[in-house]
Amino acid sequence: MTEGAAEGEAPRDEAGIAAAVLAAYEAREPLEVIGNGSKQGMLRPVQAARTLRLGGLSGVVMHSPEELVVSARAGTTLAELDGVLAARGQSLASEVPDLRHLLGSEGEPTLGGAVAANLSGPRRIGGGATRDYVLGVRAVNGRGELLRCGGRVHKNVTGLDLCRLLAGSHGTLAVLTEITLKVLPRAERERSLAVRCAEARAGVAALSIGLGSAFGVSGAAYVPAALAGRVPGLSGPAALLRVENFADSVAYRVDRLRALLAPFGTVDVLEEEVSRQAWRSLRDAEPLADGEGAVWRLSVRPSAGPGVAERLEREMGAAWFLDWGGGLVWLRGPAGERGHASVCAAVAEAGGTWTLLRAPLALRQVVAVIPPEPEALARIGGRVKAAFDPAGILNPGRMRAGV
Amino acid sequence: MDVEPPLHEDVLARRGAIVAGLCRLLPEDAVISDRARLRPYETDGMASERQVPLAVALPSTTGEVVAVMRFLHREGVPVVPRGAGTSLSGGALPRADAVVLGMMRMHRILEVDYADRFARVQAGVTNLAITEAVQKGGFFYAPDPSSQLACMIGGNVAMNAGGAHCLRYGVTTNNLLGLTVVTAEGDVVEIGGRHVDAAGYDWLGLLTGSEGQLAVVTEVTVRILHAAEGARAMLVAFKANEVAGACVAAIIAAGIIPVALEFMDRPAIAACEAFAHAGYPLDAEALLIVEVEGSAAEQDALLARISGICARFEPVSLRVSASAEESAAIWKGRKGAFGAVGRISPDYLCMDGTIPTGRLAEVLARIGEMSGRYGLKVANIFHAGDGNLHPLILFDANDADSQRRAEEFGAEILRLCVEVGGCLTGEHGVGVEKRPLMGVQFNPTELAQQRRIKEAFDPGWLLNPSKVFPAADAAA
Question: Which of A118, A149, A158, A246 to mutate to test the interface with B (most CBs of B within 10 A)?
Fold first, then answer.
């Protein structure tokens, strides 16, 4: 896999992508689809005779700030896209994580990769996931056919919503070639409140008060003592809540939240730049990036986060922190089948989902990296996969063994 | 050409046995088979089409839905799921060979959790009932289609319902955490739950807005939000549609996302004012209602910013509400718009295309030109922030020629929406109404891809037949 990744085809236009997929379809030869490879270490390794690289298909096609819309080719780097948006005071609202440090990879993350993985950062809890911002895609299915899904308008219920299905399908249904997104204005100001809180349950209760308030909290994380030193602006365990808005609103909302949160502990305020650094660190799972071990990303109901994390700390010595109001558990523990089984069991009991995000190849080859689906759904899922990719050539085995 | 797929003659012939089978699965009063009592189910919010169904089944639990679906699957009987029947596109229109699965008895709120900010409800709970169930905690359910008093959450999921506040809060698909669905074969599947983001394929996203083509929704877990401290509206009128459109663009380009941004053209202003006496300026060509949220001071600050922007566009009038009562008065005309148009015309067609907001003035000018050509009046109401256009075409259903012209006019508007980079439907769905136009937006390859997905869920084409997919497709 990774050895062959430097080679393979890197078409510069959509027609070239379609031709490459069609050739693989006709030859019935599996195709590993990658952008710049920054997330290749995620999920399961793909065994493929051919590699199709999207990095050559890049460039912002359209940006209409007054319509809150941007279109870019799939291989456009997030850095380039962010630059174009920032010049007009806008940004990708879902705060896509940059996992290069965590995964030890180097390629510049692309828009296509971010959408294919549906990776969303701290703002997900209030504003929605990356897929919530996808208005339209152009994509090539496993038969080499070009599909236009969605469009460039904000409200569209015409036909089945294939944009949402393709977002997060990791290139197993179709190869994204161009993506149109809703974008939002960058906030004029941001501040964060850090509530000193030694107990995770109390911390998540504080996050819940903030998220359940009228004050538009746009980030809600809990960092325990063990990792607090790794987050800019924190000196001890804390519940961290972010407010982004016009300057006068931020001042007002921070005051109101400070009063609401005072019963949970001393409240410190992180100013603009420190707040930004703290959330960037949490977005990219920086506190867990160093050190050996596998990394899992779990999503459970927010109030269940502390219980799951603490149980896994006891059972396997896991290090962890919580985002999304407590519902996103970032967890690092020993890379082995036993630890993995503990994670699966803890999430199954709490009700939720998990992704084995980082692990040595040997582990990723033998365990499921995402939860199995109920039988009735798996049966339909197999037929949906075949509906896009009848020969099973697109990223085979990336999400599940044998699919 | 749109050709209706043939009825299942064998099903019609076995009607008695099918009704008897349903009666064995459900309580006696939950199966309707006599013609007079079937009549209320013959149509939905798109009253121009009517068809009495084979029978109606009224389950009360997911278990009963499973029993009915297994039976109908085994018998090869088409199923038409139905909530409150408010679809404007014929999404719940029966066929003579279909059993209507009415969800109105599934009206229980199952769970409300303020700490984790969700509510789990049965599919037959009305949209407004969710907000009513959580408002004592200060919360609300965000999507607010104008039928929210009657429409049911199962139907909202099926059609991916929107509303006036989507620009800020998103549509149904952005506000869901989980679904319980029953497949065509009668299997129960739990999708999502009380957490966000599945790790596998996004079945939640695919099922939402699938118009009953893929599965029957029986329970829904929605995200609930804490209400803002307050909201206030302003009204600003302009001397031309393009000026109003430019003002909308300037507000958004300034980094302000109002919670609502509604646009009305001159005929809509006149109709609404005559009905609601909301004080709308009758000499204006275009009117915007802008609503902001926050504390009183935050509202003041935002309304001042927006007023400053509007002032650059030489408004004919500009009125910032000073109180909740004044805001309600400003909204009164807009909220009563459909009723108002109903008073000046015996019938109207409500269209629902979406356009890129930058093309607003051009599209309204071309709709005006069509209005002259078809000899029918049109009033335009428009969610200006997100480009969702609601032209109301006035006609007389007792005059067959008037009705035919209205339908052709509507189709031409939707073609125009697609031509300028928009789509056929922003929130009402394709249903029966826009099925013949699917080929305007999608090419045969794209339609075939969608059809294959439909078949992955429903190989026998028994779920909500004769909708969404053009007939030639469905028969293929």
Answer: A158
What local confidence, expressed as pLDDT, does residue B471 receive? Answer: 81
Q: Which CATH superfamily is domain A286-366 in?
A: ACT domain (3.30.70.260)
The answer to whether A205 contacts B468, with C-beta atoms less than 8 Å apart, is: no
Q: Tell me how far the alpha carbon of residue A45 is from its chain's centroid.
A: 18
Boundary residue ending a domain (B104, B139, B162): B104
* Domain annotation covers residue B159: yes
CA B242 vs CA B190, B239, B245, B271: distances in Å: 48, 9, 5, 21
- Give the residue from chain B lying closest to A400, CA to CA: B200
Residue range B87-92: mean pLDDT, rounded: 95
Chain A interface includes B357 (CB < 8 A): yes
Q: Is residue B282 part of a domain?
A: yes
Domain coordinates of chain A in residue numbers? 1-186+372-403, 189-283, 286-366
Note the pLDDT tens digit of each residue in A270-318.
999 999 999 999 999 999 999 889 999 999 999 999 999 999 999 999 9
Residue of B66, B70, B116, B175 to mutate for A, most A C-beta atoms under 10 A: B116
The answer as to CATH 3.30.465.10 being correct for domain A1-186+372-403 is yes
Residue B341's pLDDT band (boundaries 50, 70, 90)? Answer: confident
Claim to verify: residue B363 and residue B389 sit in the same structural domain: yes
* CB within 8 Å of chain A, chain B residues 143-162: 159-160, 162
Nearest CA to B304 out of B254, B265, B260 is that of B254
pLDDT for the residue A179: 98
- Asked if residue B87 and residue B29 are part of one domain, the reply reads yes
Query: Taking all residues of chain B, what is their mean pLDDT, rounded to a whole number?
Result: 94
Check CB contact under 8 Å for B195 and A164.
no
From B188, B358, B457, residue closest to A64, measured CB to CB = B358
d(CA B259, CA A4): 50
Task: Kindly state whether A23 is in contact with chain B, defined as any CB-CB distance less than 8 angstroms.
Answer: no
From CA A351, how far away is CA B312, in angstroms rounded? 54
For residue B311, the domain's CATH number is 3.30.70.2190
Q: Find out whether A268 and A224 touch, Cβ atoms under 8 Å.
A: no
- Cβ <8 Å between A67 and B301: no
The residues in B 265-284 lying below 8 A from A, measured between CB atoms, are none
In which domain, by residue range, is B174 found? 109-226
From A312, A326, A322, select the one nearest A205 (Cα to Cα): A326
* Mean pLDDT of all residues in B75-92: 96
Q: How many structural domains does chain B have?
A: 4
Q: Do the Cβ atoms of B160 and A157 come within 8 Å? A: yes
- Same domain for B190 and B245, yes or no, is no
Query: How far apart are alpha carbons A25 and A142 in whole angstroms?
Result: 7
Sign of CA dihedral A218, A224, A227, A232: positive
Domain end residue (candidates: B419, B443, B471): B419
Residues 75-104 of A with CB under 8 A from B: 88-89
Is the pLDDT confidence value at B242 over 60?
yes
Query: Helical H runs in B216-281?
Result: 241-253, 266-276
| Residue B66 distance to chain A (closest CA, Å) | 13
Q: Are residues B73 and B149 in the same domain?
A: no
DSSP code of residue A245: E
Fold (topology level) of A189-283: Alpha-Beta Plaits (3.30.70)
